[in-house]
Design brief:
The complex is a heterodimer. By secondary structure, chain A is an alpha/beta fold. In chain B, helix 5 (about 115-125) packs across helix 13 (about 250-275), helix 11 crosses helix 13 and helix 14 packs across helix 15. Chain A: This is Monosaccharide ABC transporter ATP-binding protein, CUT2 family.
Chain lengths: ~550, ~375
């Protein structure tokens, strides 16, 4: 795995102006392209689009420019605003401010139907087809050709056949029930629906996610045929390889804003793309690693051959007391699922989890906690906190039974213990009777971590501990994690921020598509290497081989 | 790199200072309050439940004022007022006991539609000829065991069988009443046990025994909810089941226990109701589930779980029986009564929603200013 992404693209590609129709099946008749669309003309332009929801600024000044006949890729981490942007374009949401220009005119789509009529079709990841209707009925759903109130089935079937031919899939029978088609076939039906509306812009949200490896090539062929007809495509994918193969230009989103627009999809170095996605201007301040021999004791946690089909496979790892082990990987690489399985919140299909030599019962959080594990889950608010309850009750959520006598809680002692934790973590505000919802993100995270400082936690599992945490609190959290390790607690840390993993962990595992692809001491890895490992798509490796 | 980037890093709009210090107006306000002295229970977060209960007491006072205005002749007589209060409390006692169990189930994020049916089944089972032959102790033991047993079945179906609480307890409502009809052969079973029947007629220090039972169950419920690990788990399981699970709490087992507790309360209620009627039949305690749920809801317990008070539920039951009493002393129909009750339920939920909305607005503001 030393080859860089640029080297993988071997085939000649469709040019950015949309001329390439090679690779398409010859018998697919290219029907008339929309005559009034000049290839290369800007069809869609977004200027400073802002969309807020109560408490969240989902879009915060988005710029986007899409040309006819191009494949424009949108890149961004989860929560960067891609989904909201799609919903604004497809008329589900209306922007609060900023301008959407569609084919030269400023527009606001009041509802999805309006966007559809204007010629913008969206193909969502979970395809919105009616499974028990036929291909033709799905393609023309809501605008069936009719006469005297009766659907003209013959005409509908004929036009569907025509559109399917245009997509290079004349073999799909228009009368087949959609339920009976494979995932790739359903996707073709979705596109047929877009074409039945004479769409000029098709938005595809992670279309390859539902496809098997060999079906992706077919998807790309269809996309090329569409663009050759002057149709613009907005393509969203996490897989950089795909973007390099099919994309013309890339726009990168971060925190609801555009951080870079119209980068060339093929030549922009991975590093630049990733930097713009993470947009790091933050100075990471990591505590010093202890020098010397380091932890040499027996293993605390031993995971062997852990597998959950579709999530991760055959993962083995070890954590020693006082060691910080980091797992780097993208969202969807199986890292959070792995952590939750080790913790017993998910049941492993195969493999064992051993704490201090004893095998833990699969799928039992109670067993894991009794063995000395604690976890700070990825979603603080939905997975870890009782937002309306006081801070001290959140801190003692895992331990309040220990302070109880004969089933009666000892609130005084709980408060005292929580006070002590609040003191040592420099929680602000310090008053532990306040409800957790009034705390900032960083302080909420301290509450979650602090929960496991009570009692005798031997191994702490941290899933994205600094997500949504401000810079100052981040440094404090790093300090807390390091000092825990110095006290002999083992830490298993998951983060999508590579510098965080490299800076904090003693040893690093890199995960991609459910597998550990590299394990090394943090000192032997640099950010570039890890990013390459993390982003590389095994999909294209397979195709290139 | 820069020559290919058309609009890289556009100027951020100035609405949000990028690195504003995390100052929270609510926080500073609270800090000022703390500086001035301790946060009063009234303004503080912990006073939230007390504030809501005060609202209920206000409703109760308003109902009494309406009583005084409409029947000044009765309210002028102090011995009548005292005995009327006891009438209202006695009226509230059976549903009150059921509501305590219901409060736990709803705070724990569930619902129990089968309570009325469990009361009927427990009452019928306790008054069969065979059970009555074991005497008062046997009848009480039978009612409690049946209540607990049916509650356990509910709990098993919901926690381990993964049925939706609404469906599981709806099915139990139908099935338990069916079994009760089967057991009693659709007849009214008269209780011949004097000890049981005396429960409803005995007064201690001038107060009916039924009211003491209600008081005992309410106090036990309050202690259980507010002072024990069981209560703490209930709030955690209802407030955020995933967080509770990941903190090592056995959510399934606890859910099972909540429904068992509700069933046990129904068993107690069955004895009380059988004593009052000196008989039991399959149709008894009809629609108690609605009375209990309504009382819990107007008592300020969130239907989505995670928050609620026993005292609020008790006040809810007392408000309902006061309305019934008010209509009775004015000679009005039960139909009009039901309409007023319906109105009160709607009003209570509206009040809850307004509180909820202001809460989410507060949260939204909070987040924008801190991040």
């Amino acid at each position: 795995m030393t080859e860089r992404e640029e080297g993988v693209v071997t085939e000649p590609e469709a040019s950015p102006t949309g001329g390439g129709a090679q690779g398409g099946s010859v018998d697919a008749p290219l029907l008339e392209a929309p005559a009034d669309t000049v290839a290369g003309e800007v069809v869609l332009r977004l200027t400073d689009v802002v969309k807020t929801f109560p408490g969240v600024r989902a879009l915060d000044g988005v710029q986007l420019e899409v040309r006819a006949g191009e494949v424009h890729c949108l890149l961004g981490q989860n929560g960067a605003g891609k989904s909201t942007l799609i919903k604004v374009l497809s008329g589900v949401h209306q922007p609060d401010s900023g301008q959407v220009e569609w084919r030269g005119e400023p527009v606001t789509f009041a509802n999805p139907q309006a966007a559809m009529r204007a010629g913008i079709a969206t193909i969502y990841q979970e395809l919105d087809l009616v499974e028990d209707l036929s291909v033709a009925e799905n393609a023309f759903l809501g605008h069936e050709p009719r006469r005297f109130g009766f659907v003209r089935r013959g005409q509908m079937a004929r036009r569907t056949r025509q559109i399917l031919g245009r997509l290079g899939h004349a073999e799909i029978p228009p009368n087949r029930m959609v339920r009976l088609l494979p995932a790739a076939g359903k996707q073709v039906v979705s596109m047929a629906r877009a074409l039945s509306h004479e769409a000029r812009l098709i938005i595809m949200d992670e279309p390859s996610a539902v496809l098997a490896h060999d079906e992706v090539g077919n998807l790309f062929r269809i996309i090329r045929e569409l663009t050759a007809q002057g149709i613009a495509v907005i393509y969203i994918s996490h897989r950089l390889e795909e973007i390099r193969e099919i994309g013309d230009r890339v726009t990168v989103l971060k925190d609801g804003g555009t951080t870079a627009a119209n980068l060339p999809a093929r030549d922009t170095p991975t590093r630049d793309l990733v930097n713009r996605m993470t947009g790091r201007t933050i100075e990471y301040v990591f505590p010093e690693r202890p020098t010397g021999a380091g932890p040499a004791e027996a293993d605390l946690l031993v995971v062997e051959g852990l597998t959950r089909p579709g999530e991760f496979a055959d993962v083995s790892l070890r954590v020693r007391p006082g060691e910080v082990v980091g797992i780097a990987g993208l969202v969807g690489s199986g890292r959070s699922e792995l952590l939750e399985t080790i913790y017993g919140a998910r049941r492993a299909e195969a493999g064992t989890v051993r704490m201090a030599g004893r095998v833990l019962r699969a799928g039992s959080v109670g067993a894991a906690v009794r063995a000395g594990m604690g976890m700070a889950p990825e979603e603080r608010k939905s997975q870890a906190l009782l937002l309306g309850e006081p801070i001290y009750r959140n801190v003692t959520l895992a331990t309040f039974t220990r302070y109880a006598r004969a089933g009666f809680t000892d609130v005084g002692r709980e408060r005292a213990e929580a006070d002590r934790i609040a003191e040592s973590l420099e929680l602000r505000p310090r008053d532990v009777r306040r409800p957790v919802r009034t705390l900032s993100g960083g302080n909420q995270q301290k509450v979650v971590v602090g929960r496991w400082l009570l009692g005798d936690t031997k191994l702490l599992l941290l899933d994205e501990p600094t997500r949504g945490v401000d810079v100052g609190a981040r440094a404090e959290l790093y300090q807390v994690i390091r000092s825990l390790a110095e006290q002999g607690v083992g830490v298993l840390l998951v983060s999508s921020e590579v510098p965080e993993v490299l800076g904090l962990a003693d040893r690093v595992l890199v995960m991609r598509e459910g597998r550990v692809v590299r394990e090394a001491p943090a000192g032997e890895l640099d950010e570039n290497t890890v990013l390459d490992l993390v982003m590389a798509g095994s999909l294209m490796e397979g195709a290139a081989a | 790199m820069s020559d290919v980037t058309d609009t890289s890093t556009p100027e951020r709009p100035a609405q949000l200072p990028a690195q504003s210090p995390p100052v929270d107006p609510a926080e500073t306000a609270a800090a000022e309050q703390r500086a001035a002295g301790r946060l009063s229970w009234w303004r503080g977060e912990s006073g939230e439940g007390a504030r809501r209960n005060l609202w209920l007491i206000g409703v109760l006072v308003a109902l009494i004022v309406i009583g005084i205005v409409t029947r000044p002749d009765l309210y002028g007589n102090s011995s009548w007022v005292w005995s009327n209060i006891l009438v209202i409390l006695k009226l509230a006692s059976v549903v009150g006991v059921v509501s305590v169990g219901m409060t736990f189930v709803i705070i724990g994020g569930g619902i129990d539609l089968s309570v009325g049916a469990i009361v009927a089944l427990a009452g019928v089972w306790a008054t069969t000829v065979a059970t009555q032959s074991y005497g008062a102790g046997g009848m009480i033991f039978c009612a409690l065991t049946v209540g607990l047993g049916v509650g356990l079945v509910n709990g098993l179906l919901i926690s381990y069988g993964r049925l939706v609480p609404f469906i599981a307890t709806l099915a139990m409502l139908v099935a338990a009443r069916g079994l009760a009809a089967e057991l009693s052969d659709k007849q009214t079973q008269v209780s011949n046990n004097a000890t049981i029947n005396d429960i409803a007629s005995t007064n201690l220090l001038g107060i009916p025994l039924l009211v003491y039972i209600l008081a005992a169950v309410v106090i036990a419920g309050w202690v259980l909810l507010n002072r024990t690990t069981f209560g703490r788990r209930t709030v955690a399981v209802g407030g955020n089941p995933e967080a509770a699970r990941l903190a090592g709490i056995d959510v399934k087992r606890h859910t099972l226990m909540l429904y068992a507790l509700s069933g046990l309360c129904c068993g107690i209620a069955a004895i009380m109701l059988t004593a009052q009627a000196t008989s039991a039949q399959a149709a008894m305690a009809n629609l108690y589930e609605l009375d209990a749920i309504a009382a819990v809801i107007i008592g300020g317990t969130l239907l989505s779980g995670g928050r609620g008070t026993i005292i609020g539920s008790l006040l809810g039951v007392i408000i309902f029986s006061t309305i019934t009493n008010l209509f009775a002393i004015n000679g009005l129909t039960t139909e009009a009564q039901n309409m007023v009750k319906g109105g009160i339920i709607v009003a209570a939920v509206l009040v809850q929603q307004v509180q909820f909305r202001s809460l989410t607005q507060f949260l939204g503001r909070n987040r924008l200013t801190t991040n």
